[in-house]
């Protein structure tokens, strides 16, 4: 299988890439750091006999995401783990969208939609978003403040991102059951997560990660277990141990179509 792993040059994406390599898969690593990618490709080569390549992209830029997707000739699996952790308020990218939502929602939505046709040609197509499946709350402002321009907070941004991922993945699973779709929560992992935080808070987070965080390669194993065990017909909500069958939020059914339509309208320039 050929897997495209977004966010593969650090953290959880790194752990997933190495696990997939050890299982015999070929990988396209996607991220921002060419230097890190070179090291991780060598690591993958030491674990497996697949082919390993790197494509550089900044997922803040939706133009870059579209350009990258147009250059992918074929694909079996898409795994997305790009993200950031800050306590900043609404902060726009050059394209006019909030940075967190661009990484956690918009870029993921685009990757899945732009690559769906190619993944659909696979005998075993799979799409997984690694973010907060089963551990976030709903975001009730999806109808009147979809982009969180008025109701932005760290909690609302986190809940909206997870909630929107549940919704768009579920709608896509309903229209294309040839592909298996999943939303996973990786749990608390010892990575460089939180490097954008203020220094005091960053030091606290790093101490907690070292003391209580799961190894990123163990996390990668769990996420890959969830990936290969995903079911068909609806989005599979996967926990930190790679077990599926988790629950969506209470307002999921009433909101999912509207969320998908709003995302499609917001992203229409790139679709």
Automatic annotation (TrEMBL):
It comes from the Eukaryota. GO terms for molecular function: oxidoreductase activity. SUPFAM superfamilies: NAD(P)-binding Rossmann-fold domains. The keyword Zinc does not apply. Pfam families: adh_short. The keyword Oxidoreductase applies. Keywords: Oxidoreductase. This is Uncharacterized protein. It comes from Triparma verrucosa.
